[in-house]
Amino acid sequence: xxxxxxxxxxxxxxxxxxxxxxxxxxxxxxxxxxxxxxxxxxxxxxxxxxxxxxxxxxxxxxxxxxxxxxxxxxxxxxxxxxxxxxxxxxxxxxxxxxxxxxxxxxxxxxxxxxxxxxxxxxxxxxxxxxxxxxxxxxxxxxxxxxxxxxxxxxxxxxxxxxxxxxxxxxxxxxxxxxxxxxxxxxxxxxxxxxxxxxxxxxxxxxxxxxxxxxxxxxxxxxxxxxxx
Amino acid sequence: xxxxxxxxxxxxxxxxxxxxxxxxxxxxxxxxxxxxxxxxxxxxxxxxxxxxxxxxxxxxxxxxxxxxxxxxxxxxxxxxxxxxxxxxxxxxxxxxxxxxxxxxxxxxxxxxxxxxxxxxxxxxxxxxxxxxxxxxxxxxxxxxxxxxxxxxxxxxxxxxxxxxxxxxxxxxxxxxxxxxxxxxxxxxxxxxxxxxxxxxxxxxxxxxxxxxxxxxxxxxxxxxxxxxxxxxxxxxxxxxxxxxxxxxxxxxxxxxxxxxxxxxxxxxxxxxxxxxxxxxxxxxxxxxxxxxxxxxxxxxxxxxxxxxxxxxxxxxxxxxxxxxxxxxxxxxxxxxxxxxxxxxxxxxxxxxxxxxxxxxxxxxxxxxxxxxxxxxxxxxxxxxxxxxxxxxxxxxxxxxxxxxxxxxxxxxxxxxxxxxxxxxxxxxxxxxxxxxxxxxxxxxxxxxxxxxxxxxxxxxxxxxxxxxxxxxxxxxxxxxxxxxxxxxxxxxxxxxxxxxxxxxxxxxxxxxxxxxxxxxxxxxxxxxxxxxxxxxxxxxxxxxx
Lengths: 228, 545
Ligand SMILES: Nc1ncnc2c1ncn2[C@@H]1O[C@H](COP(=O)(O)OP(=O)(O)OP(=O)(O)O)[C@@H](O)[C@H]1O
Ligand SMILES: [Mg+2]
Description:
The structure holds 2 protein chains of 2 kinds. Chain A is an alpha/beta fold.
């Protein structure tokens, strides 16, 4: 298994479990959607996987690297996890190029430009390389946020409610685009939503979260077939 | 055409246009007077003194701005990002040094380190024969920093509080170290607030006259006063003023140019950054901040209290009471005028944006950028012109009248206060209007409520807290104001600020201690109200549409 999550437990305050004994395994390249009502702990689960919150118990192994176990804890900045935030969090004082290059400091300077260009091609936004975030539409901002998260070649991509800031017309189009981009890069991804349609259209598997527990799981065969 | 003009002519527009003209005319006057032939004194100043004035001014604002930017940022960062005992208390008390005018702090530290002062006596009592001289450029830099850093602190604190945690978290997930997150994300995002706060500090430093006079630090405001009152040469004073104004505008435009196309507040759901506990070595941070507060507020106040022990009862008499009431009432009066005009300006600013509106409002808010000494000259000349113009009218009313009426009255000083502090009132009120948006006002207009009625029953109640804080900040600035008051007051008219200055210039600090303490107490009380008058209901919950 590419991703192994084992009996995670977490609470923001003592004696309150926001994530309760969550276990999950994923194959490489699989897309999992997490569905659940507001407050069920979806964002929290992503924050734990990314290393922004430290679980009280449990194990996380991705691509044979143990990120979290009883004796091990790798900080968020050392994990190779890409995340697209609900508000995209594009740095407003940097243009598109600088935003995407932000995560590429380990690459030699000469490779960075090429990688930025490659990412912009992937999301078809080459002509916006010099634009500042406030000069982009909501959908364009999201694509740049995606490009920025994918640029350092993370081992897993996490998306928190990627469509919640978009209006319905745009949403359908972007949903297809996102699916295409993720499939093209063969990126193992988890995305959070509370809209069944989103999950239905994109995911290989849907996981239902309620009060911090996984209560149901559905495999979406129609999506799996057209990729393999 | 006429109808279009008429539809735009309302109280708000007319007030704004007049307010703009009243600041442009006196300032243009300065540049017109530049054409007057150079005096001998000017040639002397230009040959022997100008270089020194320029150098000292730049050295002073360079160090003051770097130090207060660092201190203000550090304080704001510690208060917003770390959790520790006494944080809440420190959070508002760090603003208190603003209640101590730089010149009063200069008199107190100057005296404490003099031969008979507290510090020197303490040194001798422990057998140390040393001596600290604060009355130098370095001393001036430190005192300006201690009294002015709160401007940076307040602005940066509010910017850091608004910074969304998702920016920092994204940066971390992209592999950035804490160091890189700070330098590439946190600091640049707070830059506009840092720059705006530092700009206020610079403007206040250029405005000061009391401290630089007492320490004999020869900067521009010193030079202008000197030219006017020692050389008795208005022409040189005007030339120096024009140069100083060019420097100020240069600084302001430089910052605009650097900012360019970048924006710093992208619409983003703000989840505030969580505060973390201080780690071992960081435990020193609050201690440092308490020390700043000690030097910037507690020690000067204690020393002043100590002085009052020696003041005999005759000092706190009817005359002193009269003086205190006097300076508070003129400050209240000028504050009232400023708030009323600022409301008109802010209303003028609402509705459809136009570039004329924008630039006009910039002009009406120029006053704060203009150092007191320069503004004083401009207003003085303007009022003398007015008196010449109105002389026939004076004669008509009272055949025995002298030539100068307005320029000998208190109205000149009030006028100057209004010009200088308009920007502060306006910006604060404009910000609260911005927060409530326009939907309520538009709804009221749709219900056929008149402009004035809407203002009174809808807008003002909604921006109550903003009005209060505007009024308080303006009030504090006015009671502290020294250079304008010194030049433009009627003969024998004193405020707390001028009487402190008068006594202190004669080394009579004991006599100065009571008015100085009253001034600091009033200003501190205002700061307390400002920081504790949190909006509870109403305006606070109203969101921009
Ligand atoms: N920083 C925090 N401190 C304390 N409690 C928190 C914090 N963040 C979230 N919670 C609580 O944890 C629970 C789960 O929150 P979470 O944000 O993970 O829910 P969610 O499923 O993402 O909801 P939504 O769909 O509204 O985004 C909620 O009860 C919430 O109140
Ligand atoms: Mg959520």
